[in-house]
Design goal:
The protein is mostly helical. 63% of the residues lie in helices and 0% in strands. It has 5 helices and no strands. It is globular.
């Protein structure tokens, strides 16, 4: 069994992707110079060993608490400082235009899926929460989460094309949304 990614490192990776996207789009719109670097992506997690086969309720509760704390921390964090960073690769104009188009399209798709997710979560709340919602609502919520995760991973791949580096371990978002 592969070691599960640390939720804080995954959250930092997602944070990096959106910082890199913001930097990339500002450069494309000429709001900042071409030499403005994106922040450095988080370091990949070192492989340590395997997780136990079973995880008890206490561990799940502890991880849930940690994830909620990370979410609150991300809301309060300031932008990553750009003193050191990754410069934009020297790509042809056509490639840059394609990357910009794909990035903007992915951002629109993420926005749409997040709006759909919000709508479905409100629907589930009318039933007393996701646990008590009909299966169609639960499945739709899971599908929206999976689609957002897939788009974030694709954004990471776009930023890898633009900067030559990517945030590690974001594929776990897709796996997590399927459970």
């Amino acid at each position: 069994m592969k070691k599960a990614a640390d939720p804080e490192k995954v959250a930092n990776g997602v944070n990096w992707v959106f910082s890199a996207v913001s930097n990339f789009l500002k450069i494309r719109k000429k709001e900042q110079g071409v030499n403005t670097p994106a922040p450095l992506p988080p370091e990949p997690e070192a492989e340590h060993g395997e997780l136990p086969a079973e995880i008890d309720d206490l561990e799940v509760e502890a991880k849930s608490t940690a994830v909620n704390a990370i979410a609150k921390k991300l809301e309060q964090e300031e932008a990553i400082p750009l003193e050191k960073g990754v410069p934009l690769l020297d790509l042809k104009d056509f490639e840059m235009d394609q990357l910009a188009s794909e990035t903007e399209s992915l951002l629109k798709q993420i926005s749409t899926y997040l709006n759909n997710l919000h709508f479905e979560e409100e629907k589930a709340a009318q039933f007393g929460g996701v646990t008590f919602a009909p299966p169609i609502v639960m499945n739709t919520i899971r599908i929206q989460q999976q689609e957002v995760a897939k788009r974030v991973v694709r954004l990471n791949q776009c930023m890898q094309k633009a900067y030559g580096v990517a945030a590690p371990d974001l594929e776990v978002l897709i796996a997590a949304s399927q459970n």
